[in-house]
Amino acid sequence: MKKTILLLATILSLMLPHTIFAQILPGSVSEAIETDESFSFPEEETSGEPVPTADTFFRGKINEIKNEYEYAPYGPGSEALIQELYVIITKGPEKDTIVEVINEVPIQEKDTKAFAIGDHVVVGKTQVGDGIQYYVSDVYRLNALWIVCAIFIIITLVFTRFHGIRAFVGLIASFVVITWFIVPQIIEGHNPIMISMIGTAIIAATSLYIAHGFQARTSIALVGTVISISVAVGLSYFFVKATKLFGMGSEEAFYLQFAPGAAINLRGLLLGGIIIGVMGILDDITTAQTAVVEQIYRANPRLNARELYHRASLVGREHILSLVNTLVLAYTGASLPLLLIFKIYERPAWVTLNSEIIMEEVIRTLIGSITLIIAVPITTFIAAEYYYRKKPSIDHHETSHAHTH
C-alpha cells in the first residue's frame, strides 16, 4: 500500500504542469539571492530530467515573488510565464524554512495558474542524486474542502437528524472496506472481480444496517441488492468480453501497468469498478422500494401480494426514470473532457464510440442502468411476498388489541 502511494505521488510530481525545482535558502532571503550561484532556469538545465527517489510533502505559502517574466523556450507558440517564487513551509518538520522555486505556466493559462503572494500550496521535497530539490506540486485546496464537507454534514443532519449520523457512519464503513480490504487485496494480485464482490457484499450489509437499522425492511433490501449485484456481475463479465475491453481505457490504468511489485488484472479491475459503481446507486432503489411496499401494506393490510407488487412498481417506475437519467448525466459529466477532445480532434462518430475509452463509460452506464431497472421488480417482489405472508400475524395482533380496548 505504501509503495503504491509513493509511486502515485512520484508520478504526479513529474506530470503536474508546475514543473518547479528549487534549492533551500540559507539565512535571509536577501542573503540567499546574493550567495546562491547554483540556481538555474529550466532552459539552462543540461543534466536531463531528475529522477526522484523519495518524496516528502509539506504545506507552504507563497511568501514573495522575486521576479516574473515571459519567454518562449521553443519559439513562437510556446510562450510561458516564468515566476521566481519564495515559498515558506508552514507545516511539518521543516516549518519556517524558505525555499526558492520556479513556476512555469503556459501564457494562455497565466490568469488561472499563476501564483500570487499569500497563496497556499503543496511543497514537495525529493532526493535527486546527492542533492535535495524542492518544488510546488499543487495548490493547497483542503481548507475549502473542509468547508464544503461541513456544509454537507450540517444540512444532512438538519433534515435527517439521528438518521443522518447513522448514514455517515455507514459511509465511513464503506470507505474503510474499500481502503483497507478491496484496494490492498487487488494490489496483492487477488482476483479483482471476486474481491469487489466480497467487498460490495460487506459494504451493502454494513451500510444498510447501520443507516436503516436491524429490521425486516433492511434485510429485504439487502437480499434485493445482493441478487441485483449478482446479475450485474454476470452482465458485466459478458459484455466486457463481448466488446473486447481490456481495462486500458484510462490514464490511471496505463500507470498501473508499471506499478512496482503489483501484477494487476486490468480487465478484472474494470469489472470490479463497474460492480462497486453499481453498488453506489443500487442500495438507494432497493431500500426505497422496500419502504414503499411496507407503507402501502400498512395503509391497507388487506391487499394481496400481487396488488402490493403492482402499486409499488408504479412508484418504482418513476424512481427508475429519474435515476437512469441521473446516472447517465453523472457518467457524462465525468467524461466531459473526453467528449471535448473527441469533438476538437474530429473523427467519425462510430470511430469515437468504438474507442475503448468511450466504450468503457458506455458499458459502465448501461450495466448500471440495467441493474437499477431489474432491482425494482426483484426487490418489490420479495417485499410484497414478505409483507403479504406476514399479514395474518399482524391482523391477529391488531384484532386482539382492538378487542382489549
Main attributes?
6-stranded antiparallel sheet; 13 helices; elongated; alpha+beta; 405 residues; disordered N terminus
Low-confidence stretches at least 5 residues in length (pLDDT < 50)? 1-48, 393-405
Multimerization status: single chain
The total count of strands amounts to 6
Mean of residue pLDDT values: 77
- How would you spell out the order of helices and strands? HEHEEEHEEHHHHHHHHHH
* Biggest sheet overview: 6 strands, antiparallel
Structural class assignment: alpha+beta
Distance between the termini: 65 Å
User: What fraction strand?
Assistant: 5-15%
How many DSSP helices?
13
Query: What share of residues is helical?
Result: 55-70%
Give the strand order, joined by hyphens, for the main sheet.
1-4-3-2-5-6
Give a quick rundown of the structure.
This protein is of the alpha+beta class.
Summarize the structure in words.
The structure is a single chain. 27% of the residues are buried. The model is unreliable at 1-48 and 393-405 (pLDDT under 50). It is built from 13 helices and six strands. A hairpin with a 2-residue loop joins strand 5 and strand 6. By secondary structure, the protein is an alpha+beta fold. The chain is 62% helix and 14% strand. Helix 4 (142-160) packs across helix 5 and helix 7 (216-242) packs antiparallel against helix 13 (356-404). A six-stranded antiparallel β-sheet has the order 1-4-3-2-5-6, with helices on one face. The protein has two domains: 2-140, no CATH class; 153-394, no CATH class.
